[in-house]
Amino acid sequence: MRNVRRYYEGGYYFFTVTSYRRQPFFATQTFMAALRNAIRATMKTHPFEIEAWVVLPDHMHCVWIVHDEDIPIRWRKIKSLTTKALKEFTNASATHKNSTARHRRGNGALWHHSYWEHTIRNDREYELYILYCCYNPVKHGYVENARLWPYSTLNTFLASGKYPADWADINPTWLDDVFGSHEQ
């Protein structure tokens, strides 16, 4: 992300990150293991708190609490470490037309080169974006109940009490009014 100005040093952020050309690479055990390791390594050098995270086959959403303005460094490190752990994507970059530039950026053939970021400004947005993350697999038609999606913070954070217990059986269709519906 070039020439991005953040008006806040730290805060709550919602992110959407996609795979290269929206290919369905993400929601696998192998990818998830590499992603978790990359997140842990990044958190050691550039700490942040995870409020919500969901990984779908071609994109992911998350809400973080960050206490500085070094968000691009975090995403660059997460993407690079994940790509390096998944050798098939590092090597596959050589088959793409712009492989040299993609490889230099550490994206390989796994990641779209940028991400979408939104600063969360109030409690209502905070709750809506967390719900959006948790219920995105339902919105896209992957499951009928968000608790059935394995690549989400929903069940872990429900069990720990971080999310309210009444979120377990929420009907997410009202989120379509706020964020728009998704037709497959």
From TrEMBL:
Q: Supply one GO molecular-function term.
A: sequence-specific DNA binding
Domain of life per record: Bacteria
SMART domains membership? Y1_Tnp
**Span of domain Transposase IS200-like:** 8-133
Tell me the Gene Ontology biological-process terms attached to this UniProt entry.
Answer: DNA transposition
InterPro entries, per the entry: RAYT_transposase, Transposase_17, Transposase_17_sf
Identify the PANTHER family for this entry: REP-ASSOCIATED TYROSINE TRANSPOSASE (PTHR36966)
Protein name stated in the entry: Transposase
Protein's organism: Pseudidiomarina halophila
